[in-house]
Amino acid sequence: MVDTKDKILDTAERLFGENGFGATSLRQIIAAAGVNLAAVHYHFGSKEELLDAVVVRKLAPINAERITLLEKAVARAAGRPVALEQFLEAFLWPAVRSAGQDPAFCKLMGRLHGEGLMPRVVVKNFQEIAARFLGGLRNALPHLPEDEVIWRIHFMTGAMAHTLKGPPDYPGVIVGAPVEPETLLRWLVSFLSAAFQAPATPLVVDEEVKV
Q1: Which residues does 46 contact at the CB level (< 8 Å), separation at least 6?
Q2: What is the rounded CA–CA span in Å between residue 11 and residue 32?
Q3: pLDDT at 1 over 80
Q4: Residues contacting 207, CB < 8 A, separation 6+
Q5: What is the CATH number of the domain that holds 1?
């Protein structure tokens, strides 16, 4: 039997994903969950804290698996630098696998991105991941200046978020068939590793190329 707390979390995740955080009220959540407002305040305190709990419930296991995969990659490297592809696989695989199993949560994350709430999610849920992965990526990309590394990581998160939404589906333009998570991971890692390892890009200043 689903307890009250899980019932609230399940309902909030669904409604936030369908309607957006801003357009979903606590009253809509309690009505759909069949609980009273006091239960929400007792377990979570506010709508913002409820959103945090919804996100943490799903992201915490994903991030824990990322750390485990990274630690295994470091152990296999036996003191040698961890390959860029290994960093990408450790970061991407838990999310790619989860997307196939839990499309509703991917929909929610897409909504949060569209509403400009991802910085809040990142600050609250990615401190350890950032410390572990960003340092490793910088070490794997010594040919890139710091600013370009940061922007390429930004490009990576955008590509990942777009990919996790599902296959290309633009009728009359481009449509892609669903693929197995393992295949999707290989394609995504191949694409991103090539992008990360591309030469540093010359800066254009006053219409002159500055290397």
Answers
A1: none
A2: 7
A3: no
A4: none
A5: 1.10.10.60
Distances (CA, A) of 137 to 87, 144, 198: 7, 11, 14
Q: What is the pLDDT of residue 178?
A: 86
Q: At what angle do helices 146-164 and 181-197 cross, to 10 degrees?
A: 160
Q: Please report which helix (H) or strand (E) contains residue 136, including its range.
A: helix 127-140
Question: What is the amino acid identity at position 12?
Answer: A
Strands 203-205 and 174-175: unpaired
- If asked whether residues 37 and 60 sit together in one domain, one would say no
Nearest alpha carbon to residue 77 among 22, 131, 144, 136: 136
- The boundaries of the domain holding residue 156 are 47-210
Domain final residue, candidates 13, 28, 45: 45
For the chain, the average pLDDT equals 89
Instruction: Give residue-wise pLDDT tens across range 5-46.
Output: 999 999 999 999 999 999 999 999 999 999 999 999 999 999
Q: Where are the beta strands (DSSP E) in the chain?
A: 169-170, 174-175, 203-205, 208-210
Would you list the DSSP string of 48-67? HHHHHHHHHHHHHHHHHHHH
**For residue 182, with 0-12 CB atoms within 10 Å meaning exposed, 13-18 middle and 19 or more buried, which class applies?**
exposed
66 and 39 share one domain? no
Tens-place pLDDT, residues 50-64: 999 999 999 999 999
